[in-house]
Every structure is written in structure tokens, then in C-alpha cells.
Write a structure and sequence with these properties.
Distance between the termini: 12 Å
Helix content: 40-55%
CATH architecture of one domain: 3-Layer(aba) Sandwich
Number of helices: 9
Number of strands: 7
Structural class: alpha/beta
Largest sheet: 7 strands, mixed
Strand content: 15-25%
Shape: globular
Length: 200
């Protein structure tokens, strides 16, 4: 049985931290997993900046409430979900994802959790498991699923490279250059056609 595993940010919705960077005028927060392969390092960098500026969960959630899915994303997801099982694997956090899942029609998402103090300060984060996307793909395969994966960033490469079929979607020039054998697409129609060809 096939299951499609999709990244969230950059694939179905805009990058949350880039939107928050633009809303706050803090350029350092524009850095994402497209730029930094080490997710722990990236998140600790972000939390330090939030502390420096006195920003917490509420401010980020206020920005998220203004974010809509990328144009065509919901239609792509609806079409794909009518054809096969779909799971969103993201390194975002449950406290961020909910309003975005509502706008996408409540697809299933596996993500992580923020540790938040009573005053709304983000004090840390708890990853669901180590190398969460790769670990999840391997676990799905161990219970009889054939995985097909797509994403745009460094933290997606584990699931993409270890799936029956894997695709880059709207990725960076650097990642496409480093992984020339991975099919790379820019439109939902192209990605949908590629996945459909795999699942038959």
C-alpha cells in the first residue's frame, strides 16, 4: 500500500519563520532548514532571538493566523488524498500547525511540540523522535507501506532518499545541484503527475 509523505512549509504553506521575520522586522529569523541542515542548531538560534526581543508564542500565532496555504496547495492535496493515503511530516510544532491544517482541510500531520512557559515564553522544544521524517518513513515501511516523499529542504532529504520514490519540490538551487538525480518540480501539476505515475 502506498502512502505519500509531504513536507509542510515551502511545499503546502509559506515558511512560518520567514513570515514572522517579515512581520517583526527581524531579518535573522528568515533562516530556515533550506539554509541550516542542523535543526537543533537552527531552533536554538531562533529561541535566542525570540528571548532577545521579548517575543513569545502569541506573537508567532498572531502571524500564523494571517498565513494562507500556497496557491493551489489545497486543491493539490484534495486531489492527492482522493487517490492515496497522505501524511504530512513536518518539523514545525503543534502550536503552530493547527490553523494551517484547518485551512488545508484537516490532513493528518506528524510534527513536534514547543515547551511554553505560563507567560507565553517559548522555553524549548521537544522533537517527536530523532530524525523524525526519516524515522517515520522507515516505521511506515516496517508496517507494509511503500512511501513516496516530497519536500524542499535539507531536513526532507532523509525521507526523500529512503522512499520508493522521492521528489524535490520548489527546492533551492544548492540542493538541486547537490542531488542532481532527484526529480525536481516547481508546480503542483508536475508533482501530482509524478506521484500518480508511481502509484499507478
Amino acid at each position: 500500500m502506498d502512502i505519500v509523505c509531504l513536507d509542510l512549509e515551502g511545499v503546502l504553506v509559506p515558511e512560518i519563520w520567514i513570515a514572522f521575520s517579515e512581520a517583526t522586522g527581524i531579518p535573522e529569523l528568515k533562516k530556515t532548514t533550506r539554509d541550516e541542515p542542523d535543526y537543533d542548531k537552527l531552533m536554538n538560534f531562533r529561541l535566542n532571538i525570540l528571548r532577545e526581543h521579548g517575543l513569545g508564542l502569541k506573537e508567532i500565532q498572531d502571524t500564523i493566523s494571517t498565513i494562507d496555504p500556497l496557491p493551489g496547495a489545497k486543491e493539490f492535496l484534495d486531489t492527492l488524498r482522493a487517490r492515496t493515503q497522505v501524511l504530512i511530516l513536518s518539523d514545525t510544532f503543534t502550536q503552530f500547525a493547527s490553523p494551517l491544517m484547518q485551512k488545508l482541510g484537516w490532513p493528518t500531520i506528524f510534527c513536534n511540540t514547543l515547551e511554553v512557559a505560563e507567560d507565553g515564553t517559548i522555553t524549548g522544544f521537544k522533537m517527536r523522535c530523532e530524525k523524525s521524517k526519516l524515522t517515520t518513513v522507515k516505521a511506515l515501511q516496517s508496517i507494509g507501506f511503500d512511501t513516496i516523499s516530497a519536500g524542499d529542504s535539507y531536513n526532507d532529504l532523509g525521507m526523500i532518499l529512503n522512499s520508493r520514490a522521492g521528489f524535490l519540490f520548489r527546492s533551492t538551487d544548492q540542493i538541486r545541484h547537490d542531488y542532481p538525480d532527484l526529480p525536481a518540480f516547481e508546480t503542483y501539476d508536475e508533482l501530482l503527475d509524478a506521484i500518480t505515475e508511481v502509484i499507478g
